[in-house]
Write a structure and sequence with these properties.
There is one protein chain. With 338 residues, the protein is an all-alpha fold. It is 81% helix and 0% strand. The protein has one domain. It is globular.
């Protein structure tokens, strides 16, 4: 447990440090006046536009909760939609604090209040992430295909840089194969020697629970609505960016296509650093350069979008955590009495 905590803290420091570096990197060529201009553009953004952006994001989380509930129902459970929604908001909030902590928190909280095995909930959560990954791939394909001359070259350059940094020499590949084979042999040997131990039986049951949660996708009652909810979630993400353009005078001329490009590269940026700090702003800034937007305005819009998402979660997250406890206090007392 101690080693796991150290690892989590180390990951947090690494991701946060990378974010701080990207903040410096995106502004290192700016003058003091340009930095002040970025601040002015963010703080002078139109509140009448920011509020709809927040509502759109909250609605996307609510629909995500309904979709998650559809994955849970095949497990023989029917959790309250309110509890699922509050758990989702709490999970996103904790993800801002530590990497992947939110996924564990939302499953643990919902499992506690709805009496659902956490391992099965983790399985449904993994299924959700796989679906989101598929949607992200579709978004990438759509962004590139609709503007192949503009975004295609940018994406190719970006991925070429990533691939060029990976060592693919025969020696490295051979060492990797030997390492993976050795690990597989050691795991198999340990399993054969101690497969009847209580520890391995617990792990086996845990894995079975996760697998059961994963295959819950096949047992969903209304698959059409499940697909509709999935597409709606991503459309709302896209809409929050599109509406956000109206908050800054320099960006009102931009439409759905730039929004799609920001959604594509911004999604990668959100997982690159802790809470997307630094990386998201940098990705938005560089993406908007493709559409002739100045670096100052692009960076300001990146900060605006990131701030709206982050502040919203810092407000709704703790409130959701308190509401979860308050609304379920009666059932907790009944469990203690029983």
């Amino acid at each position: 447990m101690f080693i796991k905590r150290i690892k989590t803290i180390f990951q947090f420091i690494i991701f946060l440090s990378l974010g701080v570096f990207l903040i410096w990197f995106s502004t290192k060529s700016f003058t003091a006046n340009e930095i002040n201009k970025v601040k002015q553009l963010v703080f002078n953004a139109k509140p009448i536009i920011i509020v709809p952006c927040i509502l759109i994001l909250v609605l996307s989380h609510y629909i995500r909760a309904i979709r998650w509930k559809m994955l849970i129902k095949p497990l023989g459970k029917n959790p309250a939609t309110t509890n699922v929604f509050l758990a989702v908001l709490t999970g996103f909030f904790f993800n801002l604090l530590f990497p992947r902590l939110g996924e564990v928190m939302k499953c643990s909280l919902l499992g506690k209040y709805e009496k659902i095995p956490v391992d099965k909930l983790i399985g449904t959560m993994v299924a959700e992430r796989v679906l989101d990954l598929i949607c992200l791939v579709l978004v990438i394909m759509l962004a590139i295909s609709t503007q192949i001359d503009l975004v295609g070259g940018y994406a190719k350059e970006l991925f070429d840089q990533i691939l060029s940094s990976i060592d693919t020499s025969p020696r490295t590949i051979l060492l990797l194969i030997i390492l993976l084979s050795s690990m597989a042999a050691v795991i198999y040997f340990i399993y054969k020697k101690a497969r009847h131990s209580s520890f391995l039986l617990k792990i086996n049951n845990w894995i079975k629970g996760i697998v059961e949660g994963l295959i819950s996708v096949r047992k969903i009652e209304n698959k059409t609505m499940f697909i509709v909810y999935t597409l709606t979630i991503w459309f709302l993400y896209l809409s929050s960016i599109r509406v956000g353009f109206y908050a800054m005078q320099d960006l009102v001329q931009l439409g759905w296509v730039p929004s799609l490009t920001i959604l594509t590269f911004g999604s990668f940026a959100m997982i690159a650093t802790q809470g997307g700090i630094g990386a998201y702003q940098f990705a938005v800034q560089k993406t908007l350069l493709l559409y002739g937007v100045k670096e100052v305005s692009g960076l300001a819009f990146g900060w605006l979008l990131w701030s709206v998402q982050t502040v919203m979660l810092f407000i709704t997250g703790p409130i959701s955590l308190v509401l979860l406890f308050t609304l379920n206090k009666k059932s907790i007392k009944q469990n203690l009495n029983n």
